Amino acid sequence: MSNDDDWASILRGHPIFTPPRGANNEQSLELSLSSLPNFSRADDDSDGFTPPGRQKVMCMKDADLILASGSEIRMTSLSDAKLSGGSQKTYKVLHTPNVEFDIRQIALSPNGKLLAVAGVFQVAVVVLPRSGFSKLVTSRVDCKSVQIGQYYHASSSSPPIAKIEWHPWGEAGSTLLVMTSDGKMREYDISVDPEEPQQTLSFVPERKRGAFVAHDDAEREVVSFALGKGTADWGPLTMYALMKSGDVYAICPYMPQNATIPSAYAHSLECYVAAKQEFISEEGSSNSESFSTLYDYQRKYVNGLMKQLPPGTAFPSTSRSVPMHPPKTLKNDPLRQGPFLFQPSPPELDDSINSFATDVVYVAFENNFDGDEEIVEENSERLNVVLIAFQDGRVDVCLDLEKVEAKWESKHRHQIDLPMFAVYEVIDLGIASLLSPEHNKDANIFDLLHGNHPVFSLDPIHDDTVYIHHAFGVHMLDLRPVLQHLTMSLKEEDEDALVTTLENHHPTSVQPILSTYSVERKSSNPIVAITVPNDVYLTYSIFILTSTMRIVSFALNLRTDHPDALPDGEPHRHRTQLPSLPDDQPVPFASMLSSKPFVIPGILSKPSTLPKVPRLSLPASSFKTELEVTPDTLRYLGSVMEQFTTDIRDVQLAQVAIVARMDMQRKEFERQQNHCRVMLAKIEDVKARRANLQDKLKSFQSTQGPLLARMDRILQTLINDASPELNEHETKWFEELRRMKNQILGAGRYDTSSLVSRVQQLHKEFDRLLPNLTELVKKEADQKAKSQAAGSSFGFSQSFAYGKRSEAERVKLDDTISKIEKLAKKLEITSLGKPPRLGDEQS
């Protein structure tokens, strides 16, 4: 049984997925034209389970599943259920008296200890139980809970909650970000004060009284936000807010009041700002003054961060998390930047109505899709992608090429260029065509899009995989083709080649996973949550929950990246060119196979086990005993059968291609075997000839010795025949050698006049005089030391008199020496030596 079937059997009928007590019937939980007002009215006091906006009521904590059903928080251990084979299907209810509202969103803290829950207007934080809670006997587990910001979020007049999220750099994982639809982002530190926000950011300016502003309400309503990412820029300190109209604004810098920031990031940011300042100073343009002021502010901000680093935190060194606070050196508030320009402008969908934006996600990818470490080092910047979802199923894929810089409010407003997103492509999820096919247009059915709220979810293992769930099902977006295409473009050094590569568009792979839309009833069960377990004890899969508490699971495949495999269209570089053979040589062996590797047909190379046709997930009430045949059902069955027929034909074509490839490889294998046999025979022939050659070499070596001796004898005979007697010069040379030998060694054994005998006598005399000379030198050294000691005992006056007398004597001696030298010159005496020095004479 497959992993998909395992989870289906384990989760089927699990009591944790029972609807909450007092909930309405399943029809009220469906999205239809009759229930549409419930999906477009923000009323937290209503009994309906379908208020509008963002929904995410399920998450994973290691191997534990957490689910919010109404105002009740449930928790179960999937590892225990898997080990028991599905026989142990129990859950615990987290008793939280402070949570008395229907939960719309849940968010798990980075450390996994806290759970933030939010309704339409209220927010609370629950302390999760420790591991082993499933062993408790009682069905309820008491947990501490506290409401957050009751002054701002507790009343029905408060603005609705747009999104809640934990900041990844919050100290102790206790920094909760709460975004309301009025554009206020409030930061709460649960460990400090759960009532008052530590910081408040405003993405929507206050309306001025008495002033008319031509703004649509959708331009002043925030629906979602996202935190930026990066390694050596302002990305991690940037927050993006998405308006209902689709506009995007950013505020930078922003960091939690109590944060833990990696020390390596602080050093990298310092280098980044320093490089920017150096570039501006060298450029010397007209805008250098304004940029210089901006970078001075950035330098002050970065210096405030660097001063908080502990001593000894040098760069480069092992990065560690350091507690930090926002610098207070700058009194101005961060500037709201935007709205972002979308270049080129994203087109509207063909069947689109006046749809609004619903969610935004910021995804960063490492530039290492080809396994080339050198390329990664040269292009250290990440590929940053921003995805924006709309109600009609449109998804804008944008590239963040111009990263947002830190800017602050200023009294002197300069003309500031708006930030920009490069629109790579626009994805159509096909929701409009699902609701109303081309041959049966129904204008009213498009009203269901007003109750649609697509939400993004990131895959915890693969960064290039994004899931999006909405009111009509779930889609998977695989960004890997886009990222591979951009990586290849970055590797091109030639500008023309770069343009050519970019023009070869590679779209995002879009795959529908689940469909909850009933063609017959024209209604749908909205998806309220999806989660992907990231635990070693659980299978890599995806769990999808509908509004009627129906759970659907799919097993996923872990991808294995092959860095040696070249992407499609990647040219083969650095080929080894074989030397050309002469014309008389045989033609080298040529393979029947192509030089390029065999490409597996796409129908057989799916990267996951997800279904090709989206699975239907409809409530039990939708299934009748007899199938009612209607034009809509026939069209739906026809489209499904067409897809199946296409897939069957593709599989058959793939089978034919693979069989042909297999036959060709078999023939090529036989050819290579035959050539190998020929080569083996040639090798044996070469080995036999090599043995004969070695025998000949040994024979040559054995006869070489006698030949050399014979050659010496013949040469000596020739010399004797050519000059039997010595000539005059040779005779004189040998006589001189004999004379030198007698002079050095002597005529006989007792010849004392030889140089050898004289050297021996000199050694003996030196050995005899050496002890006396050594003792004499020692005595002279002692006498000299005594005389110096005696001279040092004189007083200053005595020393002065002695020196004066000595100088007079030296003058007399110099006169005497000069007279003697003159006298010797007159007598022509040349062997007169120099007089001894006065110091030597005294010693």
From TrEMBL:
Any single GO CC term annotated in Swiss-Prot or TrEMBL for this entry: nuclear pore
GO MF assignments: structural constituent of nuclear pore
InterPro entries: Nucleoporin_Nup88 (IPR019321), NUP88/NUP82 (IPR037700), WD40_repeat_dom_sf (IPR036322)
Any one biological process term the GO annotation gives: ribosomal large subunit export from nucleus
Coiled coil spans: 676-703
UniProt keyword annotation of Nucleus present: yes
Protein name as annotated: Nucleoporin Nup82
Species of the source: Rickenella mellea
Lineage of origin: Eukaryota, Fungi, Dikarya, Basidiomycota, Agaricomycotina
